[in-house]
Predict the 3D structure of the following.
Amino acid sequence: MKAIGFDLGETLIYYSNVPLSWGFEVTDIEIFQGIFKEWTI
């Protein structure tokens, strides 16, 4: 399972089946390069 998130002092991680509820599309991650980190967990 992949998780994507970003660190703004506290680590926020959400799973790949959740992003739409956050208003993000998976493809939008490219816009946030350098902010977003991706893990395989």
